[in-house]
Write a structure and sequence with these properties.
The protein is an alpha/beta fold. The chain is built from four helices and four strands; from the N terminus they run βαβαβαβα. α2 packs parallel to α3. The radius of gyration is 13 Å and the shape is globular. The relative contact order is 0.20.
Amino acid sequence: MKESALNGKRVLVVDDESDVLDSLEDLILSDAPQCRIDRAATHADAVAKMNANRYDLAVLDIMGIDGFDLLRKTAAQDIPVVMLTAHALNPEALKKIH
């Protein structure tokens, strides 16, 4: 099996649902056991972690934790981002990305 690109990397996972955080952590660690994962369940916690640490990747909830603001903050720190949502996106939400 090919080694995951996330092995040895530090990832910030942000979601207001603890079961989603658990699932994402399990999924990432199943392929990248040497990945270091920091979890945040609130916008404030995510910002504090981003200010205190350097991340190789951020996985952000779009809707529950003001993900668009976190997207701007991660972009300012040149952190690659994956954004997730359980809600359907509408055109107005997509315009916020620009």
